[in-house]
Amino acid sequence: MKTNDLIIQTTTKLVFFIIFLFSIHIFFAGHYTPGGGFVGGLLMSSAIVLLLLAFDLKTVKEMLPVNYTVVTAIGLLISIATAAGSIFFNVPFFTHVYDYFNIPLLGKTSIHTAMFFDTGVYLVVVGVTMTIIQMIGGDE
Amino acid sequence: MINLLLFPVLIPFLFATILLFFPKKVKAQRVITTLGLLTALVSAFALLWKVKTDGVQSLTLGSWAPPFGITMVSDMMSTLLVTSSLLIALFVVWFSFTSIGIKRETSFYYPAILFMLTGVNGAFTTGDIFNMFVFFEVLLMSSYVLIVLGGEKVQLRESIKYILVNVVSSSLFVITVGYLYSIVGTLNMADISIKLAAIGQAGIVTVIAVLFLIVFGIKGAIFPLFFWLPGSYAAPPIPVLTLFGALLTKVGVYAIIRTYTLFFTTDIGFTHELLMIISILTIIAGCIGALAYFDVKKIVIYNIIIAVGVILFGASVMNESGMMGSIFYLIHDILIKGALFLLIGVIIHITGTSDLRKMGGLIKRYPVLGWSYLIAAFGLAGIPPLSGFIGKLLIVQGGLEGELLWQSIFILASSLIVLLSAIRIFIYAFWGEEKGVQQVQPRTYRHLLAPTITLVVITVLYGVGSEYLVPFMTDATTVLLDPSVYTDAVFGGGK
Fold first, then answer.
1. Which of A70, A87, A95 lies at the smallest CB-CB distance from B21?
2. Among A105, B7, B218, B327, fewest CB within 10 Å belongs to which?
3. Distance between CA atoms of A118 and B355, rounded to whole angstroms?
4. Four-residue CA torsion sign, B326, B371, B344, B142
5. How many degrees, rounded to 5, is the angle at CA B49 between CA B193 and CA A85?
C-alpha cells in the first residue's frame, strides 16, 4: 500500500532550506559565538536525513548526486592544505593568519584561515555522517 | 625547514587522503602508496640526520609558545621508531601486492594502512599527552578497519573483542589524563615532567603512574592484560598481522617507556619495581604460550609478548646499559617480527595451513625460504652476529648492574625458549617427509619472497652493523635518562 506523504514532503521542501541556511549561519558564527564546523556539518547532514525520511534513498541520490566519500576526502584535503600552508612560509605547522578585506555586499570583513580549516571539518562531518547513514540505509 | 619533524606524520596522511578519491583503481593505489611511503621514509632519514647533528627537535604547532600549544618533539628514540615503522610499512605494502587480494585492495586497504602510520608516527612524535591519545585513536580506528576488512567470520568475532578492549582502555586513558590534568594543570609532556618533579613523591602521582601502566599495558600487551592479543592478531590476513605485530604493541611500549622516564621518576622504588615484576611475568606468560601451540601464527604472536617483557625489563632498570639495550631491542624487534611474520606468511601460502603438524619437508623445494627463516629465527633468539644479540646483552648487563641476578637469568633463559619455539617451526615445516605442499606458481612465490628476504637482510645488517648504530642509541638513552634534555629542548625553542 502506498501511503500519501504529501504533507511531510511539502514541509520538508521548505524546512530543508531553513535548516541548510541555519547550518551555514552556525558555521560562520563559530569564531565568535558557539558553533563551528562540527555542529554546522551535523546540522547539514540532519537536513539531508530529513530529505531521506520524506523521500526514499534513490530520490535523494538523484536530488543530490554526491559521492560522500569524495566529500570526506575533499574536506580532509582542504584542512590539511590550510594547515600545511604554513610550511611554505617556514613557520610552525597550523599557524593561522587573518586580515580584513572589503567584500562587496558584506563590507569590511575579517577573513581568518581557521575558517578554511573549519570548511574542511564541515565537509568531513557531512561526508562521514551521510556515508554512514546511506551505507546502513541502503541495501544494494 | 622547522617543520621537518612533522613530515613522517603528514606525508602518509596526505597520501591516504589522495587515495580516498579512487578506491577502485588498484594500480594507481599501489603506485601512490609506494610513492608516499618512500617520500615519508626519505623525510624520516633526513630527520634522523637532523636529530643526530642538531640534537632534539621540537616544534609547537600554530606558533604558540610552549606549553600552550601542542608540541611535537623528535628525540632520537622517537625518530628511530618512526623510521623503522615506515620501513616495515613499505615491506608490508610490497608484500600485500601479491597476497592481500584485489577485493580488499579496492576497499580502502591502502588508505587504512597509511592512516594507521599517521597515528603510529604521530604517537611516537607527539609531546602532548592528550595529543598522544588522539593519535592512539587514529591508529586504533585504522586498525579496526584493517582487522575487519574482508569480513570473514573469525575476523568479525575477533574484531568485536579487539574493539571492546580498546574502547575500554581508551576511556581509561582519558580518565587518567583527566586525573593528571587535575593535579598538574597542563597537558604538555615537558611541562608535566617539570611540574611532577616539583610535586615530588606524592601518593596520587604513583596512582596515576600505575593507571598509565594499565592503559598502555592493554595496548602493549603486558602480563595480565595481554589476553585479547593472541586471538585478535591471528584473525586478519598476514600483511595486516605483520603490521600489527611489528608496530601496534610497540606504540604501547614506547608510551610506557616515555611516561616512566619523563613523568614518574620520583617514586622509582614502587613504580619501576612494579614494572620490572610485571615484565618478568609477561616474559613467562609469553614463553608458556610460545611453547604451547602448534599454530605458527600463535607461536610468533606469543613471541611478541616475550619481547614486550624483555624491552620493559630493560627500561625498568633505569641505568644506561639497560635503557640502551631496550632501545636496541625495540628496533630489532620491530624489524625481526616484521620479517618473521612475512616468512610464516610465505609458509602458510605454500602449505595452505598454519598447523605445524600438517606441514613438512619444505626445505627440498624451497631452500631459500628455509635458510632465511633459520637466519631470522637465530636473529630472534639473539645469536651473536645477528640483530637480537646486542640488545639483549645490554639488557642483561643492565640487570646485573642493577643487582637483579635472578631476573637477568630469566631473560637469558627466555632466549632459549624463544629459540626453541622458533626452531620448532623450522623443524616441523622444513624437515622430514614432504607433506602439505601445494603447487604455488613460481612467480607468486618470487613476489612473496622478495620483500621477505630483503627484510631479513636488513635485520642481519642491523645486527652486524650495530657498532655504527651505537652513537644513535647513546643519544636516545641520554634523553631518556635525563628528562631535562627533553624539557630544555621544548622550552628552549628546539633550536
1. A70
2. A105
3. 52
4. positive
5. 75
How many domains, in total, are found in chain B?
1
In chain B, which residues have their Cβ closer than 8 Å to the Cβ of A87?
3
pTM (predicted TM-score) = 0.94
- pLDDT tens, position by position, B278-336: 999 999 999 999 999 999 999 999 999 999 999 999 999 888 999 999 999 999 999 99
Q: Name the residue facing B21 among A73, A84, A95 (closest C-beta).
A: A73
Peptide bond into B67 cis (omega under 30): yes
Q: Report yes or no: B81 and B124 within 8 Å, Cβ to Cβ.
A: yes
CA distance B269 to B473: 26
* Chain A residues in contact with B18 (beta carbon < 8 A): 73, 77
Distance of CA B96 to the CA centre of its chain: 19
A81 and chain B in contact, CB less than 8 A: no
Contact A40, A122 (CB under 8 A): yes
Q: Is A90 on the interface with B (CB under 8 A)?
A: yes
CA angle B187, B193, B196 (to 5 degrees): 95
Domain membership of residue B340 as a residue range: 4-493
d(CA A104, CA B472): 59
Q: What's the whole-number mean pLDDT along residues B430-452?
A: 85
Q: Which residues, other chains included, contact B373 with Cβ-Cβ below 8 Å and sequence gap of 6+? A: B343, B347, B425, B426, B429, B430
Interface of B with A in 37-76 (CB under 8 A): 59-63
| Secondary-structure breakdown of chain B: helix, strand, coil percentages, each rounded to the nearest 5 | 80, 5, 15
Residue B438 sits at the chain A interface (C-beta within 8 Å): no
Query: How large is the ipTM?
Result: 0.92
Residue B446's alpha-carbon distances to B33, B90, B341, in angstroms, are 21, 17, 17
A95: chain B residues, CB-CB within 8 Å: 61-63
Contacts of A72 in chain B (CB under 8 A): 20
| Mean pLDDT for the stretch of residues B151-175 | 94
Q: Are strands A98-103 and A107-112 parallel, antiparallel or unpaired?
A: antiparallel
For B469, left (φ over 0), alpha (ψ -120 to 50), or beta? alpha
CA distance A35 to A28: 8
Q: Per residue in A14-28, is it b (16+ CB within 10 Å) or e — as a string?
A: eebeebeeebeebbe
